[in-house]
Design brief:
Blueprint: E1 7-12, E2 17-22, H1 25-31, H2 35-45, E3 59-62, E4 76-82, E5 89-95, H3 97-104, E6 109-113, E7 120-125, E8 128-133, H4 142-153, E9 158-161, H5 164-167, E10 175-177, E11 181-183, H6 188-194, E12 197-203, H7 213-229, H8 233-239, H9 244-250, H10 267-270, H11 272-278, E13 279-283, E14 293-297, E15 303-306, H12 308-313, H13 323-336, H14 340-355, H15 368-379, H16 384-388, H17 392-399, E16 409-410, E17 413-414, H18 424-432, H19 445-451, H20 458-478, H21 483-486, H22 492-503, H23 509-531, H24 545-548, H25 563-577, H26 587-592, H27 596-603
Parallel strand pairs: 1-6, 7-12
Antiparallel strand pairs: 1-2, 3-4, 3-6, 4-5, 7-8, 9-12, 10-11, 13-14, 14-15, 16-17
Helix pairs in contact: 1-2, 2-23, 7-22, 13-15, 18-20, 20-23, 20-25
């Protein structure tokens, strides 16, 4: 098998055992890698109803056939598990040297199960795996952990670790690598913590088997050059995703005061141009020449790496208008190992609950000092922090007072940084996203602004599906960064050429679409199998605030989504995906995607239509 190493590494932490496992060529061709491998392994090996924080849950690190072979932006891996935050399929991707080393060590994925009896570091050095006592690391921040790992294992080794949030099982804890690159929004860091796994350290030195190594070298060099010629390249290097702050402000999409206003009077102070004034350098993932991490000095004089999502969620969404202070909150989030999006979301929820007198704790919008304390309280699960550590869906159930309408989540995953009061297409993208309310699979909002934000037509549904298949299916399975494609316009044909050079196989765009559809459909099956008969189409509807409470400020003041029209659009979406009116794939759809055995299994948990 060329393009893939052909091996997984199965690790049982309870037994301190690591066993390589060859996988079949048909798995590679039908699921490609990354998210595709992760969902197939979870579907095949996880018992329905497994407690996400039990030893039985699996923690998966997965790469794809284009990972780490020296082509543009290919130093990524997917981290996945059954999510403790949502109860469904959860994953995220991280740009990390660990991805490069994993492939060079001869593995396309590492599957971890069990629980170590005390904190442990797993060290993988080519074919040798060791279990190293990590008691001295436990309780340390992700930054300190990484620095110690570098000292102990060498500065060029790949590392993946958790901070205190993961150790304390905060439901939106992430896995961190290279100071600020983190992934696994739906609590994948908590899964790692539940296994007493503080870090994975990987060093690989072997070759990655390629069908045409010379052709790949040439193509990769051309790809990097092509990226440099893109008109937006220079500006991207200056601001990365940060220019989205100004765009969201201009277009009434900026989450502000827990998604109430969509514009913020201090947006200019926290935007891309303000960031440039305090920027000191760029950071990036391995094998990337677009390095989009903006390093700035924060209000305490320390480095903090900024991107749009975290700045906005820890900025306008909680009423913070001082970028240096936001940078400090962002550094704290990375250091504890939180997902910055969910953190800003639950903080906004807490501030609104405080404003409405629903909690006894007083936490006022934009109060920097109190916010720092609250972040620490969440990391250590103290007082109100213990409730917020469970995520906004849980917090709204505890706090009550009608807060479920403004607990901003879909299926338990907190909404990321786009207000959708006047963006039904983006609302559908959030509603139907494969891990909950995340923008990654279908960031359609800029396109939607151009075609008319007021309509709910089937063209929007088509565009959401197209994006989900390419961004959420293809890129997450190839396991390379999508930004050269969607932010600079590198054509998809480049990835077909890369695949041919890696695997020796021609993949048509139609075939890649079908693979993506298979992956995303199996992710949906995973959710449905977990939720069983409690599954309903309401789970694909975004928060009621966007339907019931009109925008309170800005040019689009008064805007609100129409629930009936949204539901019509959702029905069209289901029909186009071959899912029934509850959003469950039909047997015909599953059969057509080659998921025949999966269909039989799903039948034993829910009624599925022919
Ligand atoms: S563009 Fe940004 S996210 Fe993508 S690989 Fe480069 S540094 Fe990482």
């Amino acid at each position: 098998m060329l393009g893939w190493t052909g091996n997984f590494l199965n690790i049982d932490l309870t037994k301190s055992k690591a066993v390589p496992q060859q996988f079949s060529e048909s798995l590679a061709i039908n699921f490609l890698g990354g998210r595709g491998f992760a969902v197939k392994v979870l579907w095949d090996t996880l018992q329905q109803g497994t407690d996400p924080l039990s030893p039985e849950n699996k923690l998966i690190f997965a790469t794809g056939p284009l990972t780490a072979i020296g082509l543009p932006n290919s130093g990524k891996l997917v981290v996945a598990s059954k999510s403790p935050l949502t109860g469904g399929y959860g994953d995220g991707n991280i740009g990390t040297l660990a991805a490069v080393h994993m492939r060079k060590a001869g593995y396309d994925a590492i599957v971890v199960e069990g629980k170590a009896s005390s904190p442990v570091i797993v060290q993988i050095k080519d074919k040798v795996t060791e279990f190293i006592d990590a008691k001295e690391f436990w309780g340390k921040s992700s930054f300190e952990t990484e620095e110690r790992l570098r000292q102990q294992f060498g500065r060029t080794t790949g590392t993946l670790s958790i901070g205190q949030a993961g150790e304390n099982l905060v439901k939106f804890a992430t896995i961190v690598s290279q100071e600020g690159r983190s992934g696994g929004r739906p609590g994948i860091g908590a899964v790692m913590g539940s296994k007493n796994l503080k870090a994975v350290v990987i060093e690989g030195t072997g070759p990655i088997p390629l069908a045409d190594p010379e052709g790949m070298r040439k193509l990769a060099a051309e790809g990097y050059k092509e990226v440099l010629t893109k008109p937006l390249y220079q500006f991207w290097k200056r601001q990365g995703t940060m220019s989205t702050v100004e765009w969201s402000q201009e277009n009434s999409a900026l989450p502000t005061f827990n998604y109430r206003q969509a514009v913020f009077n201090k947006a200019d102070d926290i935007g891309g141009f303000a960031m440039e004034k305090i920027k000191t350098s760029n950071r990036g993932c391995p094998q990337c020449n677009m390095t989009c991490g903006n390093v700035v000095k924060d209000s305490e004089g320390q480095d903090s790496e900024l991107d749009y999502e975290s700045v906005v969620m820890l900025g306008s969404n909680i009423g913070m208008g001082n970028l240096a202070e936001i940078s400090t909150l962002n550094r704290l989030a990375d250091s504890y190992g939180f997902d910055g999006i969910s953190l800003g979301n639950v903080l906004g929820f807490a501030m609104e609950a405080s404003e409405k007198g629903l909690v006894k704790d007083k936490i006022v919008w934009g109060d920097f000092e109190k916010t720092k304390i609250m972040i620490t309280d969440i990391a250590y699960r103290r007082d109100l922090g213990a409730i917020l550590a469970e995520g906004v869906r849980f917090a709204s159930k505890v706090i009550g007072g009608g807060s479920s309408d403004w607990a901003m989540h879909v299926k338990g995953l907190e909404v990321s940084a786009y207000d959708c009061h006047a963006a039904p297409g983006m609302a559908l993208a959030y509603g139907t996203n494969s891990i909950g309310a995340h923008h990654k699979d279908a960031w359609v909002i800029t396109w939607e602004m151009k075609v008319g934000r007021g309509n709910y037509d089937s063209g929007k549904v088509d565009f959401v599906i197209k994006n989900q298949l390419i961004r959420g299916g293809l890129f997450e399975a190839l396991t390379v960064c999508r930004f050269p494609y969607n932010s600079l316009g590198l054509k998809l044909e480049w990835y077909q050429k890369y695949l041919k050079a890696a695997t020796g196989r021609d993949f048509s765009l139609e075939e890649l679409n079908r693979i993506s559809d298979r992956i995303l459909t199996l992710m949906r099956c995973f959710w449905v199998r977990e939720y069983k008969e409690s599954w309903s189409r309401e789970l694909d509807v975004p928060p009621m605030r966007w339907f019931k409470e009109p925008l309170t400020e800005g040019a689009l003041k008064g805007s609100v989504l129409d629930l009936q029209k949204y539901n019509n659009m959702l029905s069209i979406y289901y029909e186009k995906r071959g899912w029934d009116e509850r959003g469950i794939p039909t047997k015909a759809t599953l059969d057509q995607l080659g998921l025949v055995e999966e269909a039989k299994q799903l039948c034993s948990y829910v009624r599925i239509k022919e």
